Amino acid sequence: MFRFLHSSDLHLGKRFGNFSGDLPSRLREARHGVIARLAQHAREQGAATILLAGDTFDTETPAPDVRRQALAEMRHHAPLRWVLLPGNHDSLQATQLWATLTAEAPDNVILATQARPLDLAPGVVLLPAPCTTRRPGRDLTEWMDAQPTPEGTLRLGLAHGAIRSFSEDAVAGDVIAPDRARRAGLAYLALGDWHGAVEIDPRTRYSGTPEPDRFKHEAPGTALLVSLAGASALPEVTALPTASFAWRDLDLHLLEGDDPLLALAAVLPEARARRQTLARLIATGRTRLAGQAALAGAVAEAAPDFAFLELVEAGLVTACEADDLDLIDRGGALREAANALLAEAGDASRSAAEREVARAALARLYSYAQGAAP
Amino acid sequence: MKISALRLFNVKRFAQRGVAIEGIGNGVNVLCAVNEFGKSTSFEALHALFFQPHSGTPGDVQRLRPYSGGSPLVEADIATEEGRYRLTKQYYGGRFARVTDLATGRLVAQADEAEAFIAGLIRGGTAGPAGLLWVRQGLTGIEKRSKSEEDSEKQVRASLLESVQGEVEAVTGGRRMAEIMAAAQEALAELVTPSGKPKANGRYAAAIDARDRLTAQEQRLAEDVRVLREALDRRAVAVKRLAELDDAGERQARRKAVETAQASFDAAKAQGEALRTAEAEWKLARERRTAAERELTAFRTVLATSDAHWAALQGAEQRRDEAVARRHAASAGVEQAHAEVAAAEAAEQEARQRLARVEAALKARETLARHAALSERLAGAEAARQALEGAQARLAVETLPAGAVEELQALEIDIAKLRAVEEAARPSVAIAYQPGAASPVLMDATPLREGEERGYEGQAQLVIPGLGTLTLRSNRPPQDNSRLEKALARHRALLAAMGVATLAAARARQIRAQQIESEARELQGRLALLAPEGLARLREAAAMPGAVEAEAPGPDEDPAPLRASLAATEARRTLARQALRAAEPLRARADEAFVEAETALAALRAERTQIEAILGPAEARGARLQELSERFAERDRHSAAAEAQLQRLRATVIDLESAEAALRRSRSVEDAADKEAATLREAIAGLNAQIGTRSDEAVEEMWGEAKEALAAASARVEGFAAEIRVLQRLASALEAARAQARDLYLKPVMAELTPLLGLLFDDAAITFDDKTLLPQTLRRNGHEEDVERLSGGMREQLSVLTRLAFARLLARDGRPAPVILDDALVYSDDDRIERMFDALHRQSRDQQIIVFSCRQRAFQKLGGNVLTMTDWQP
């Protein structure tokens, strides 16, 4: 029985400039913290080796503190072994990075910078496919097919890149053969690049990033504990939670009669979890002018609970009835203005942008009218 | 729309009972009753019927309910262009609303449909003022106002200003519109300036600044990253290339290429030298062949011309001999002529002496006679002497030094001879070999043939096989031409001294001198004849007549024969001299011919000597020709062989230039590789430093951060832009609605209002602000007053007139609406009230006006249709 931890895409040093305040620092620190959490899982699960399938660093030239602190943390967890594979973000083209890492890496950090077999344990061989450049444009795992190993050896593959459309860069296209594990006789092929955990086949998996960094993937960050009883036995894979931040798209679908505030309360996570949550509230469906105003107010009210909370109401249609307009005015110029905006919002001959502006202007008129003296 | 009846039940003070006001007609209708009679209740009920939905219970509806509770019911009959209807509403319990057609009793609409029907009646479109125009005591509209507001004096004044503004607000949105617009403008002003530019220090401007700053930062970092990546790529390429260059196999291959090229180049150089030697040999052989050919050709040519030359030489000798003979003959002729002259002269002399003697005797005899003739003689003598002197003068010019011509002639011959001798005077050598002589003697490396006479200049060396080398020296001063030159110099000097160009010219002059000389001699003789004792004696004799002593008489002989004899001798002498004169040129010509022949002969002889030298002895000539031919043939072969050898070498030679180029190329490849490796090492060192610095700065992380921050900032800017668009759209929609309302209603209303004002205030005029369309100033008695200072009555009147103006406008638009006044003229004095009544009546021709008033007395003067309230039970 051979056990190891499969993870990838740590993206150490990522800065999150799209957020403000101290959130970028917290997110960045959380990425560093993943190292310790992976080590703890490995110790608890009795795995001696942690395979990192590429993109350990976010850039080809991480800041020295990022690099050194990561290596120091890994050294701290000796005798656990860390195997670092160059990915597309930290490819071998970053000669400076890998030369420095080679010079600084402690004994328990193995740099899989060459496509040649690495002995992990007696009878266990790792076949790594390091990314030579940012976009190699070819299947770097092909050599594994022809690489001989002694009879009965447990062959493990380690690679970084896209199979089908799983690339994070969306330009690489179809690169790694989906059936590489079968062709190369691999007991397990550990893949990186896709930030969500995906099972390609029983022997081929993307571990996903242990600490999510975007809203794209719904699943929480995990690492995979892989147990192999033998070369022919199917791997036994367990996902272990590793993330400290949750990135969530909250779906808020409203029917016209629904109370937006009740619906909102139902989808928001419990209060204590909000500090570690980045959430986008995706509002869809229909609501009245009053409901929309109430929803926007409620979201603004709840935002301080969260690491990040944003209301996306592009998909929300604001219904407007005559009595909504009566609440603005029953007659006169105000009502005329409201009528004109409502007509413009529903005028199919106008561009969507113009209609949206008219709709928003009507909503604003509504809220001003409620605030103004009757 | 017109109202024909109003009924209400269980409304306010009419708890559980009802009243009806029926028979409301066109024009002015007046319900005049004391307070608390129910006028205001009716007014409010009517208002509720038209403006309060039956389903709601807002404050206005609550106020309709009696203290005892119950469900208020309000009903009105109306007439429109479409027909007559009855509108009924009940609030609270059993609430309903319905519309029935009075003509047919049919239910037209109920509940919400009925509300919609009523709304259509009063609104006729939301833009216009209410279809019912209401004026209450002190109030200008139906808007809610606080009690205190209504009561305050200030508000009274303000509301009076709004006596017109009330209706204005009804269509322009009023204060709410103003508030909303102010709110929208304020929100907008926080972001942008009135001209639409981002407001300085505003949030929008800050967001734009942040975005622009981030854009610049992102670009700078992107450039840094690009530079870094480029450096990384370049270093990777350089390292790879260096590895290739440093590869031992490659290095070895380059070295080997150089060595191979060097060997090839050396071989080519050696071959080149051999080729040059062969070329030199070939050139030598060719030259030798050419020399032999030339010699052979020369020999053949000379041989061919030898016989002709010989014949010419013979001819020249013969001509010389002939010339000599002719000269001898000519000389003999001259000698003979001289002898003849001498003989003739001697004979003449003798004849003359004999004659003289005879004549002397004769003279003596004829002394006297002669005496006479003396003078004649003297004259003749003088003439002769004169002629003589002339001849002597000419002679002095023409005479040549004695022997000079002969010397010249001798010199010319001598020169010819010297020249001939010169030619033939070179020393020469010849050998006769003993029979069996082993090999020929070599003279100046050329074999000396048997009998061959070979000349030389200065010295010559004879190599005699078996003996040694024999040196011949002529020891002659080289080119000893002194004699010839001396002769030539003398020749030239002679010619110059004589003043002639040639010997012939000298000869001609000599002959001329001789002629003059003989002429002179003749004249001398004649002078001597005429004055034998000299001229002086003759002159004396001639001068002294008779002084002559007669001498002894001489032989008496007839002088005539003597004279004949003398004449004959003289003729003979003349002939002789002529013959001499003819003979002398002949001899000169013979001399010339001789010189000419001699000269030609000398030249031919010299040539002959040369020919002989070339050809050698006649008997050896055949062998010589043979030898020359063979030598030429042999050298020709040799030359051909050398050329063939040369061609062979040329054909097999390696191109030296190619070999050198190949060597240069292979060397340059090696040098370039070394140089490139050095350059690469330098470049890598430079890139290392650059990359090290950049990597430590973590530019890529910063770039990623900047990109994300830029996206966020751009979204924020776009959010602001969208907000601005929304606010601008809202502001423009509000502005447009207000402007439209003004244009559609207020301007026409003002147009309607102006004549009404004139009706009421004949002594005053009100001006309106163009923009706000509100009363601005009142002009009365030539004084302008602020409109706020108008009295309460006047404002009240203005308010009523404004409604009337609106009503007129609506009626003109085909939407007539009743004007309802509830105690509307409380402040007006009697005079004004009457005027107002006039105005109302004037309006009422096509307008329904319903007036509720408690001022029974005052309103009696109004006239019109008097309404009464009756009990009514639904």
Automatic annotation (TrEMBL), chain A:
InterPro entries, per the entry: Calcineurin-like_PHP, DNA_Repair-Maintenance_Comp, Metallo-depent_PP-like, Mre11_N, UCP033093_metalloPase
Gene Ontology terms for molecular function: exonuclease activity
Residues of the signal peptide: none
Record's keyword annotation contains Hydrolase: yes
UniProt keyword annotations, A-Z: Exonuclease, Hydrolase, Nuclease
Pfam families per the UniProt record, alphabetical: Metallophos
All residue ranges annotated as the Calcineurin-like phosphoesterase domain in the record: 2-99
Protein's name in the database: DNA repair exonuclease SbcCD nuclease subunit
Lineage: Bacteria, Pseudomonadati, Pseudomonadota, Alphaproteobacteria, Hyphomicrobiales
TrEMBL record, chain B:
Span of the signal peptide: none
Swiss-Prot/TrEMBL keywords: Coiled coil, Exonuclease, Hydrolase, Nuclease
Top-level taxon: Bacteria
Database matches in Gene3D superfamilies: P-loop containing nucleotide triphosphate hydrolases
Coiled coil: 334-391, 639-690
Keyword Hydrolase: yes
Record-level Gene Ontology MF annotations: exonuclease activity
InterPro entries according to UniProt: P-loop_NTPase
PANTHER family cross-referenced by the UniProt entry: DOUBLE-STRAND BREAK REPAIR RAD50 ATPASE, PUTATIVE-RELATED
Protein name: DNA repair exonuclease SbcCD ATPase subunit
